[in-house]
Design a protein that fits this description.
Length: 309
Amino acid sequence: MLQGKDLLSIHDLSADEVAEILDFAAQLKVMQKTGVEHKILAGKTLGMIFEKSSTRTRVSFEAGIFQLGGTGLFLSSKDLQLGRGEPIKDTARVLSRYLDGIMIRTFEQEKVEELAKFADIPIINGLTDLLHPCQVLTDLLTIREHKGKNFRALKAAYVGDGNNMANSLLYGAAKVGMTFAVATPANYKPNQKVFENALADAEETGANLSWTENPAEAVKDADVVITDTWASMGQEAEHDARKKIFAPYQVNKNLLRGASKNVIAMHCLPAYRGEEITEEVFENNAHVIFDEAENRLHTQKAIMALTMG
């Protein structure tokens, strides 16, 4: 049961809790599509703290809490005393008196963890530089829709920067027992501690996790290939240098020739066509990528309903 719990990292969830989120997200999606009322969080209020700007995170959480019957409050760090130096532990204890849950999108994972330590209400990690759990749970829902529920029979690959997506995908794949390969340049590997934690989780589920510098090796026989921008928010000054370093890691037609015949490509957006993914591959997989974008709504509704309900 996730009621009253935080969602800071997929690593903190059990395999059963991951399955519970995915099952409920799928159910909520059907309810929304068929017009079935699901005001599960009527009268509840979610505070949404944004220290990093966003399109998908803000709109999906704000629309999601509304569809669940609750209210979402957009809280920019510029508008909070947090932005003027108030300790996060004080912010946590004050907001706990006003709200029923908090979603935070910020830079440091430690800030999310401190907020959770001092808050008396569920905290949802909307993104940090280390982890992006809501997006990866969304990706798992999307994979399930397009490739079936038997994750153990699937191979996924991630090609690009060893960023928060790579880290959370390692955790997600480990929890569902999937074969998962990461390909990054040697100096841009996923977080080492995350990899160690994921390998420990994989021992319990039978997942097969690996890292390589060779993108062709990673995508060999893959059913799903995932990529992300090469320069994340806050790394704009490194963009030109990263373009050169990551050029061999572009997801293009030639790379996908080594994947499964019915491979799908995924991207959490925004996508920079001609860099991490070609226009051709993106448009050939647009139906999957925009299902993935939509599924942020349904997955985060499940997370809110299960933790705040």
